[in-house]
Design a protein that fits this description.
Elements: E1 37-41, E2 46-50, H1 101-113, H2 120-127, H3 131-137, H4 142-161, H5 165-179
Antiparallel strand pairs: 1-2
Amino acid sequence: MLKPRLSICFSRSYATRIAEKPPARFPDPLVNHPNAVVKTLKDENLTFIHRPPPTAPSPHSTTLAPASPLLKSPTPPNKRAPMPPLLRPSAYNATPPRMLDEDMKQLRKLRLSNPEKYSRTKLAKMFKCTPNFVSKVAALPRPQRKEFAREIEAKHENVREQWGEKKATFVAIKQKRREFW
C-alpha cells in the first residue's frame, strides 16, 4: 500500500514587488452629471457638454443688484461715519509744528559753539523738539563725535572697574550670549 506523500515546504517566501494601491479612477463630473447634455460632432472630433446651473437664478440677486454684500461695489467714504481707533498711542498726539529756518540756524550755532554745555537733550528742550532731530539737524563733525564717544567710554570704564567679580562675570556672559544672536 502506497502512502500519499505530502511535500510541505516550511521555508518562508517573500513578495517580489511592493504592493501598491491602484490609481484612482474618478468618474468625469461633466459627463456623469444627470442633467448634462452631451453633443459630439463627428467631423471635428469635438464634444460639447452643457450642464444647467445648480439652482435657478434668484430675482433678488443679479449682477446688477447683488444681494450679497461681497458682490456690491464699495460705497464712497462718509466723512461723518465713525472711524476705527488708531493703532499707536503716539498717533493721538498732534504733530509738532515745523521749526523755522532762523531757529535751525540758532540750534546749529549753539551746538557747534559749545557741545558740552548745549547737549542734544538740552537743545531739544529749548527748541521743543526731539534729541534725534537735534542730532540730524546739528550733527557734530566726525572727529568731535569720536572724541565724545571716547570720553563717554572712559566714564563707563571707570564705573565698570567698581563692579564686583560676580557682576563682571554676568555681564561678560551676557555679551558672549549676544554674539550668538
